[in-house]
Amino acid sequence: MKPRVFVPAIASGVLLWLAFFPCDLGPLGFVALAPWLTLVRAPVSGWRRYLAAYLGGFTFFALATQWVRVAHPMMYGSWLGLAVVMPLFWLAALAVLRTLDSLKLPLAVSVPVAWVAFEFFRMHFPTGFTFMKHVGAYQMIGFGWYFLGYTQHAFTPLIQIADVGGVYAVSFVVGAVNGAVAELVLRFCVRPAPQPVGAPPISPSPSWKKVGRGLAFALVLFGAGLGYGFWQLNHAPFGEGPKVSAVQGNLTQDDKMDDPNGLLQSYSDLHYQAIQYDRAENRFYGDPPDLVVWPETCCPVDWCDVAPDASLGNAPQGFQRHRVDSQDWFLNRQWGTNVLFGLNGLEWDGTRVWKYNSALLVKPLARDPLWKPGDPQIAFSAAAGRYDKMHLVPFGEYVPLGDELPFMKVFTPYKHDYACRPGERWTRFPLTARDGRTFTFGCLICYEDSDPYLARQYAASEPVDFLVNISNDGWFKGTEEHEQHLAICRFRAIEARRAVVRSVNMGISGFIDSDGRLVKLPADRWSDSKKVDAIVTAVVPIDARRSAYAQFGDWVPAGCWLLALVGVAVGLVRRKVA
């Protein structure tokens, strides 16, 4: 095979990988796709064009998602699956690009339209589109990592446009620049293919006029985004919210599952350090925070509850006993402050017990001043709300078609059944600070912070004061997943214009303000902030701004899909007429 199209396509895969962690060479994101985009006009056969496009995508996803495999031996299949399936979205984008290009559109226009359309499609494929609720086939799913816009997580002025159109708006700008650069590459570097004697030359090289139009469009778009970003960053100081401590242990997933007592001991120790309480002397040695946050599933004690329309008396006896023990463990002890626990939630709905991946807020109660040890037991705390994770991870939290195809369960990393039920409510947790001020916050569990749709619901109506992300990244043992997860979360803060508190097992925990800036991490460097025990304490910055993206949603990818479909329809009509 001639290397004329394969080498540039694979080079794009490598360049785009370099733009993400572990290398984090973000500026490469503006040019990484340019070699691959020469396939749009390369004078080669269809099978070579699309094979080259696929190999470029395969190279990128195989390199970018290799951290998936370290979680468990069964996850090698997930890594291979992502590397094999994800490039198909690149092929679909190329097909649309070819049709749009036949309409003589500059690549600076057609590239962001096609690319953003398929980023959105990938985010929700196959059953995560909200219109599927009407046919009973809706379940949140999709792979929302490695969008073009995420390469610019450190380019603070530019990414402010995420509050207008989400990360998709940033991807649109980056895609436009890639398209303009590709026009330049085609103009200078691509030679016409040999033609028979006497035949007119066929060249993919664009005219200078077309190159100029593309460059102008990309520069205006980039300049407008940058100008908007500087304007948004020029705001009054943030208000002061509650004082929060995010605790971070350093436990692998194997340690969590094999030694629940050790897990509980580790996080209990961190908790009492966070509230500055000496258990030996039974006294506080500092001012406790208003809220302590534990990571996802890092409290190994289940919280047992009963659905509002169900009767506990009809529940199995084992569940009833478990509920008594659960309530006793959480409520009949002094936690010293409000605590958000990451745990398994068990709920009796009248017919069966469901398992959820949950966050439970426990608040302190004023103790009877006449109470003395030995008196009848009273509650020291009360449950103030529970959030159940909505966007579950396939094979990690449920088995796709598990009932219809039982053999699929062999692909899970668990020896036991860990199937969870998705939640249905965006819980707004109430929080009363020690000085009497009241706040509300929303919670995102694990990779829910990679789904723009979820986070913006907390700012669309009844906006919360801040967001919390609890996650268990101990699966990934210090790989670049930790940094990439933090980089993605920065966009949710801007899209909702709400600060985010992250409590992550193994890291990276910390505070992100609503401009996407990192307020505090366990250490000065990202790489030193993972695989360490840490307590990150700060005052949450409060932003009163409203987000256009929260109000109007995914209008950018919707517009891209509209333009792409119209363009494809026009292109097909023209082809038929010709």
Number of extended strands: 15
State mean pLDDT (0 to 100 scale).
Answer: 89
Largest sheet: 7 strands, mixed
> How far apart are the first and last residues' alpha carbons, in Å?
33 Å
Strand content is 15-25%
Global shape? elongated
Question: So how many helices?
Answer: 17
Proportion of helical residues: 25-40%
Low-confidence stretches: 195-202, 401-408
Label the structural class: alpha/beta
Rg, please? 26 Å
Question: Overview of this structure, please?
Answer:
The chain has 578 residues and is an alpha/beta fold. It has helices at 6-19, 34-37, 46-64, 75-85, 87-101, 107-124, 156-159, 162-165, 167-189, 208-233, 253-258, 260-274, 317-331, 452-460, 481-496, 548-552, 555-577; strands spanning 239-248, 277-278, 283-284, 291-293, 303-306, 338-348, 353-364, 381-388, 429-432, 438-445, 466-472, 500-505, 510-512, 518-520, 534-542. It contains 17 helices and 15 strands. Strands 1, 4, 5, 6, 7, 8 and 15 form a 7-stranded mixed sheet that branches. It has a 6-stranded mixed sheet with strand order 9-10-11-12-13-14, with helices on one face. The longest helix has 26 residues, at 208-233.
Summary keywords:
16% strand; alpha/beta; single chain; seven-stranded mixed beta sheet; membrane; cell membrane; 17 helices
Write a concise synopsis of the structure shown.
This is Apolipoprotein N-acyltransferase. This protein is an alpha/beta fold and 578 residues long.
